[in-house]
Amino acid sequence: AQSVSQHNHHVILSEAASLELGCNYSYGGTVNLFWYVQYPGQHLQLLLKYFSGDPLVKGIKGFEAEFIKSKFSFNLRKPSVQWSDTAEYFCAVNNNAGNMLTFGGGTRLMVKP
Amino acid sequence: EPEVTQTPSHQVTQMGQEVILRCVPISNHLYFYWYRQILGQKVEFLVSFYNNEISEKSEIFDDQFSVERPDGSNFTLKIRSTKLEDSAMYFCASSLQGATNTGELFFGEGSRLTVL
Fold first, then answer.
1. What is the mean pLDDT of each run of 10 residues along chain A (113 residues)?
2. Is the pLDDT of residue B103 over 80?
3. What pLDDT sits at residue B66?
């Protein structure tokens, strides 16, 4: 069975700091990869996704993620975070065999103003 | 912007009672899902629904769970006889395409179920 690991459970940064959140998955076949964000009191919403092509994908709000197949990783990055980026971030994987998403445990990001 | 809506936002029930959680997916979407998140744990897939039938379900989705799209707009999750371990946040989601076809899932804000 596939699994998704997010090693950072809590991250605290100051505004303007750079962000990188790790995501690793365990599945040997072709995968579709997603990052979702949940702002306080709001629903999960898609930040970005990778299906094929350029392994560096750009999403909303200045986020990007890089798919490194050899490392089974899909890390999320942002060069300069803002206070409004305070949220919980979830990595998710779909293995192309169905429509199920397998989520990581989430990373809570707090950005100090 | 169209959104997925869920009701109730919070329900408290006694163990053994039946619970129905309701969802109104985005109107032109074709795929519907339920996920749940037990406090402090991962978001877990329960079931997906397409073309008026279950297309996938997880091991969690046992005989006490059922889903229905009774009237073409609502998508419901029924838990027949709730257990303490069913306490969780239940998220409904919908998508125009399946996740294997670049489909983006749109999530509701969740229904928190507390079983006493």
1. 89 97 91 94 92 94 96 97 97 87 95 94
2. no
3. 97
**Count of Cβ atoms closer than 10 Å to residue B103 Cβ:** 20
pLDDT of amino acid A28 = 77
Tell me the two tokens of residue A77: 């990055």
Nearest to B110 by CA among B31, B17, B34: B34
Extract the tokens encoding B4: 């997925």
Pairing of strands B65-68, A56-58: unpaired
Q: Are A96 and B42 inside 8 Å of each other by CB?
A: no
pLDDT in tens, B6-40: 999 999 999 999 999 999 999 999 999 999 999 98
Q: Which residues from chain A sit within 8 angstroms of residue B99, using beta carbons? A: 32, 94, 98-101
| B contacts of A51 (beta carbons < 8 Å) | 102
Q: Where are the beta strands (DSSP E) in chain B?
A: 5-7, 10-13, 19-24, 31-37, 43-50, 53-57, 65-68, 75-79, 88-95, 106-107, 111-115
Tell me whether residues B99 and A90 touch, CB distance under 8 A. Answer: no
For the record, the structure tokens of B74 come out as 């609502």
